[in-house]
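Notes from the pairing session

We agreed to fold both candidates in a single pass and log them together. This is the raw record for the first candidate, unedited. Please don't reformat it; downstream parsing expects exactly this layout.

Candidate A
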Amino acid sequence: ALLTLPPVFHARDFVASDQLGRGGGEQDLPTTIVETTLTVSHGDAGAIIGSGGTTIKNITTEAGVHINVQYRKVGKDHRIVKVKGDKAGVERALKMIKNVLN
C-alpha cells in the first residue's frame, strides 16, 4: 500500500545496497538501504523535530532510521528532510511523520 502524504510533501527515493555485518559469526547479508527525501514547510519541519528534539528522537529510535532535517535557509519557504534506513523502517518513519503532521 502506498503512503499518501499531504501536498506539502514531495518525496524522492534513493535505494542503495549496503553490506551490514550481523555479528555472531553469521554470514553477512546485503541489506537494501532506502533514502526518501521530503520537502516540508518550516512549521512542519519544526513539528517533526519537536520540542528539544524529542519527536525526531522517538521516530528515529522506534523506526530504526536516520533522519536529517536541513537547516533553515534565508529566502526559502521549505526545508528538506531525508529519511534513511531499511525499507520497513523508512515506511514506518513516514507513517509516524504523517501522524505528527495531522
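Candidate B (folded immediately after A)
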Amino acid sequence: MSAVDDDATVTQLATAWVGVALGGAKVQEASYIYQELGDKFSWTAPLHNGLAVCHMKMGEWEDAERDLLEALGKDAKDADTLANLVTVGLHLGKSTGRYASQLKVVAPQHPVALRAAAGEELFDRAAAAMA
C-alpha cells in the first residue's frame, strides 16, 4: 500500500480495518482514522460502526454504545449496527432483546442472528427433555 496515496479514502479505510484486526496500539490509530473520515466527510453508519468496534476492542463499552446509537439514527436497519448493539448491550448488562429481534427481521442470515437462533433451538430442546 505504500505505493498508493496515503490520503486516499480507500487506503485510510483499509489501514483502519487492518489496524482493528492487528489490535494493540493499531486499534487507537484506527479510531483516529474513523474519526478523521467522519469529520472530513459525512458520518455514516459504517463509519460509526468502525469507530464503535475500536471502542469495543479498547474496552470502552459506553463510547461504543454512543457511536452505535448514532449509527442506528443514520440507518435503523443496518444489520452490523444491530449486531454490535447486541454485543455492547451484553457487555453493559443491558437488555438486548429489541436489537436482537430487529436483527432477526432485517437480516435473518446475519451470523449473530443465526447463532442466537441456534442457541434458542438448543434451549428449547433442553427444556423439552426436562419436561
